Amino acid sequence: MSQKVYTQGSAFPPTKPGVLRLYSMRFCPFAQRARLVLQHKNIPHEIVNIHLRSKPEWFLALNPLGQVPVLQIDDKIVPESTATCDWLDDVYPENQLQPTDPYRRAWDRVLLEYSSKLIGPYYGAIRSTDASEVESKSEEIKKHMQFFEEQLKAREDGPFFGGSKPSTFDFFLWPFYERLPMLPLLKDNPALDIEADKIPTLTAWAKAMRELPAVKATSLDASSHATWYRQTLTGAPDYDMFLKED
């Protein structure tokens, strides 16, 4: 199936019985969460990419919120990034990602809730045109990264939040960590660098994450992310950017 996006007016690509489908968007960090889990657990699937500024009518019928990711298999539909990942881990239990220890599972939920404090200033920094506000948002991001640094350090069984193997939360956090190095490029301001030396435990975590086949299969470099967000800020992003002609 083509990686190119389906837009308003596109015909619905017929589903196949028993074939798992992910509705996604190649540059979306939330959709990347589901893609990471699918790749890590080697779950057979197909991907349909959606133009999020010109959504097909049939996609809105599947998910009226118009957001990705959405999973579909036969008559079952699961939207939302954390729900899709948890569902995949439950339905495909091999290589389990969710912690079996109730205390750690509870704290992974705490970390997930806290990650919203990171996501808010991340998008705020991207959208702002005021240099001082961007730097303020960057400082917020660095403060929240220190929280994750201390939480991971306290677990003492790394390199992952899941210990010797990644957990669901590792894949929840990664898409946003992956994109942080693009901020200095996007805003042409070296002061926005995440200062890896100040978060050594997370820096070691990131190195370990980059070695995972799932991360290698779904990640883009900082320059590519910056190019995408520059286009997004102009109001006319190319959803098929970097794809070769079919």
From TrEMBL:
The keyword Transferase applies. Its EC number is 1.20.4.2, 1.8.5.1, 2.5.1.18. Keywords: Oxidoreductase, Transferase. The keyword RNA-binding does not apply. One of its GO terms (molecular function) is glutathione dehydrogenase (ascorbate) activity. One of its GO terms (cellular component) is cytoplasm. Residues 18-96 form the GST N-terminal domain. InterPro entries: Glutathione-S-Trfase_C-like, Glutathione-S-Trfase_C_sf, Glutathione_S-Trfase, Glutathione_S-Trfase_N, GST_C, GST_omega, GST_Omega/HSP26, Thioredoxin-like_sf. GO terms for biological process: glutathione metabolic process. Residues 101-229 form the GST C-terminal domain. It catalyses: L-dehydroascorbate + 2 glutathione = glutathione disulfide + L-ascorbate; RX + glutathione = an S-substituted glutathione + a halide anion + H(+); methylarsonate + 2 glutathione + H(+) = methylarsonous acid + glutathione disulfide + H2O. Belongs to the GST superfamily. Omega family. Exhibits glutathione-dependent thiol transferase activity. Has high dehydroascorbate reductase activity and may contribute to the recycling of ascorbic acid. Participates in the biotransformation of inorganic arsenic and reduces monomethylarsonic acid (MMA). This is Glutathione S-transferase omega. It comes from Elysia crispata.
